[in-house]
TrEMBL record:
It comes from Saccharopolyspora shandongensis. It is a multi-pass membrane protein. The keyword NADP does not apply. Gene3D superfamilies: MFS general substrate transporter like domains. This is Transmembrane secretion effector.
Amino acid sequence: MMNLTGVGGFSIWVVLYAREHLGLFAIGFGLFIAAGAFGGIAGSRAYGFLERWLGMVFILRAGLIVEALTYAALALVTNPWAAAAVMAFFGVHAVVWGTAATTARQRLAPPHLLGRVTSAYRLADLGGAALGALAGGLLARTFGLLMRF
């Protein structure tokens, strides 16, 4: 469900957002996206500490709120540097939440069903992203760029 409503729409929306809302061109867009990647690297380095400190359940629950707040922050900022900072934070969140979700799935699924559980998860994940991209593009075209918020 998260990919249908969030990530899928984000893949279409982020290009338009960077161009129309932030006024970024090719190099600026590349740096904007790179900020998220650098956040992801930081998230991968911090995950072990965060899981020990906060616990996996807290990370998974809080991650849903963090996701919503990140999108809201992107809607509110017009400065490219502030938006890049939000993207970096989103990169940390995405890797930390994704790692926690994968770890939980691997711990909870019976070993003989792990392949099937992972397959079903990936189908919902990627299928949701495809449908979300379509829905996000249609919403942006029909109601405007910031409608998704």
